Amino acid sequence: MDEHKGYPDPQTALMITIAALTAVLLVTLDSTIATIALGRIQSNLAASPEQITWVLTSYLIAAAVMTPLAGWLADRFGRLRTMRTSVFFFTLSSLGCGLAPNLETLTLFRFIQGASGASLVPLSQVLLLDIWPEEKHGTAISAFGVGTLMGPMLGPTLGAWLIEYISWRWIFLINVPIGVLSLTGFAVFAAGHDKLREVKFDMRGFIYVSVALTAFQLMLDRGQLLDWFSSTEVAIEAAIAALFGYLAVVHVFTTADPFIKPAIFKDRNFALGTAFMMGVGIFMVGAIPIITTMMQQLMGYPVMLTGVVSLPRAIGNILTVVIAGQLIGKVDSRLLMIIGLSGMIGGFYILSGVTLETDPWTMALVSFVQGLGSGLMFLPLMMMVFTTLPDKFKNEGATLTALMRNLGGAVGISVIQTLTLRDLTASQSRLAEKVTPDNPLVGWRYGDVDFTDPLDVAARSGEVARQGLILAYHHTFEMMFVLSMVMVVICLLMKRKKETGASRKPAPVFMD
């Protein structure tokens, strides 16, 4: 260890990095791998469509509640101790999920998974910045980016393979050896290195934030199923989220030592970066499920082909994460972020023109282009946010950015699916108005259509439904195209690193 600077020796830092990245992969892989298995789990455990959604909802609620708490736990009990405990319970709950005999047990262990895994990604991020000297930050963040972005990208492909050739239970059981590897690394190479702080726990603030997040997450998850505000349940959840959200904001600004420190938002890069992270969550996290659904349900791709087509996204991520790690510090991070956004924008532009006959190679190209963009966008954003943030706010800042990204993803998935389904109704109505006996285009396209034959009418109605759905997808991707362009403005408002004194101040908080 370099005692003067407070960094561990390079060999120890490398092994801690491997343990941290393994923990990150553990959580990020699980965040998407379960989605593709819901149908198989539903049939195997004899669950209804409404019941099976709790497999995802329980995980998301627990993660939303525990993510903002992770910063306080890291300050009070030590970052590494918190991470070791989280990996242990995540691994144990993964084993419980894989062996669950019924839906109730699976839902319980999924809740424990979400709660225990919430701290691992944000705390790993600041850990890597603190165990490596500043000249190695680009490489460290590149490695973190691979772990963070690879999990969600590989999840659908790996999940499809496990479901097809082994069992849905292995999408959870595969976490066990990964968790044991991570836990062993932390136990051997990072034991006794925690830096503790005496920090008060704001119970009232935590309750306000937790209730608001829980109600908000429930509203998002249940809204589409219950037709949103026509449902009394969803209206109550929205009212509770608004009330406790208001109480949380008032509490933050009127309490001496609140659960969330408002002073953290005085850092312009952090405030803008958090907003950027939420926007990215909406159009990047929210886009993946709808692209997958479109390929499977509309284009007729089997599960395995859908997974293979999604794989180039991970390949693009790896390429640009490595490139970005070498360019950070040499090129304006804002420029790298804008170039990365261009990849996302280009992908949505292509998606806004797909048809029912679009081949898998085109969809794979979209995945690759967007993978390139997200990898190049993510690492410069992390460096822009955390190099200007004071040391005392790093744990809290990491958890808040993770929380906003997760909330953005939850909002994106719910809103995008709702808008797509409602646009589908309008698109089908417009198309159906044109399918009439006196329309010459109908005769030109389908020949002699017998509108008195029920089979003929059913065939035309099915085609109208398919064309209406592809139109709805077009409109959704056009909306995400516009939103991703708006993110460019936020990039330009952020400060360059050289405008601050952060680069002249090494700030390791790993060691006492």
Automatic annotation (TrEMBL):
Topology versus the membrane, per the UniProt entry? Multi-pass membrane protein
PROSITE patterns the UniProt entry points to? MFS
Q: Where are the coiled-coil regions? A: none
The cross-references to InterPro entries, in alphabetical order and at most eight, read: EmrB-like, MFS, MFS_dom, MFS_trans_sf
* Pfam families membership: MFS_1
Location(s) in or outside the cell: Cell membrane
Q: Is-annotated flag, keyword Transcription regulation?
A: no
Give the highest taxon in the source lineage.
Bacteria
Q: Which residues form the Major facilitator superfamily (MFS) profile domain?
A: 16-499
Q: Which residues cross the membrane?
A: 12-39, 51-74, 86-103, 141-163, 169-191, 240-260, 272-291, 303-323, 335-355, 361-386, 398-419, 472-494
Q: Which UniProt keywords apply?
A: Cell membrane, Membrane, Transmembrane, Transmembrane helix, Transport
Q: What is the species of this protein?
A: Novosphingobium aquae
Q: Please state what the protein is called.
A: DHA2 family efflux MFS transporter permease subunit
- Is the Cell division keyword given for this protein? no
NCBIfam families in the cross-refs:
efflux_EmrB
